[in-house]
Amino acid sequence: MVTKTKKSSSAKTAATTTTTEPTVVKAKKSRPGNTTTASTFPRSHVGIRKMLDSTIWPGKRYAFPPTERKAHKPVMSYDISYLFDFGVIYEEVPTVGFVKSKKYGKTIPYYNSQEKAFIEFTESRATIVELVEKPVELVYNSEFTSVFVPDFLFFTSGGEGIFVMLMPYKYFAVQETQQKWYALMKYCADNGYGCLLMDMESGITMKFVLKVSTQIEEKNLKFSKMLDEMFTRKHTKWLAYKEYVSIIDELHVNDVELQAMVLMNQLIYVPKSPKNYMSLLKQRQDDVFNSQLIMKTMAFQCLFLS
């Protein structure tokens, strides 16, 4: 006698879900001071090979011996009761907490969801053997002595050191990001490191955006003509967010192509920022960062050399 098993409605629902579109698991937000273990994080869809291929090497690649790798220490305290001023870059309050890492034998703080995802990513990758959070302070605006700290420095099993900046890719072309990225490239060129600017959620990297810039000449030509008309009418190089939206709609470009065209045309780009911050940037629009330093020198050359 053969017994037939009746599938439950919940099982049918689950089967339907898995046969349509892959489900993207997002990390749940944690309250400040939350402590978790690496095993509680969702698996990242960013592959280690893609990450290494997207690394830019502005200078000579150096293999660091174990003693030098272990000598690197975080420059910031573990006291994260305060929150950074993410108002310029992030539209949401950052996720803050700690990870108890078995691999590295230490507790690692994270200050937003991308850092949280990155720690989990390295935890399960044998290629990455050392991880240092907030590894060095770098000056990115000498006029105001503004400093920033890259999110991570990791070392591969081959001894190569790579600095990492994490943020949503829609903010790659922001002036402040360009200044920090250029400062990091200069530091890496002088000291034998690689550098990586990426969005952990989408997997998009700065190297990919730079590559896109070489493939959209026709769209950029139309974009430049639209800019000339706007600048003639407004007598400024400043564009409000709604003007960027209109350009996107008219030219049918995506957010990645927009980031590339902002870099190519040296524009001031601050998406959906508070009015007072936009007013401050408008006053300093003549001091716009020269994005061609990124497009035509280190990063652009390394796009084809590394």
Describe this structure in words.
This protein has a 4-stranded mixed β-sheet, with helices on both faces. Helix 6 crosses helix 9. A hairpin with a 4-residue loop joins strand 7 and strand 8. The chain has helices spanning 9-20, 48-53, 66-71, 113-123, 175-191, 206-213, 217-234, 241-251, 255-264, 275-283, 292-295, 298-305; strands spanning 34-37, 97-101, 106-110, 128-133, 138-141, 146-148, 152-156, 161-166, 194-198. It is elongated and about 60 Å long. It is α/β, with parallel strands linked by helices and 306 residues long. The longest helix is centred in the last third of the chain and has 18 residues, at 217-234.
User: Major sheet: order of its strands?
Assistant: 4-7-8-9
Give the number of DSSP strands: 9
**Beta-sheet strand percentage?**
5-15%
Give the overall shape, derived from the CA principal axes: elongated
Percent helix, as a range, is: 25-40%
Order of helices and strands: HEHHEEHEEEEEHEHHHHHHH
Structural class: alpha/beta
How far is it from the N-terminal to the C-terminal residue, by CA?
66 Å
Largest sheet: 4 strands, mixed
Mean pLDDT: 75
Q: Poorly predicted ranges (pLDDT <50, ≥5 residues)?
A: 1-44, 81-91
Radius of gyration: 22 Å
Helix count, DSSP H or I runs of 4 or more residues = 12
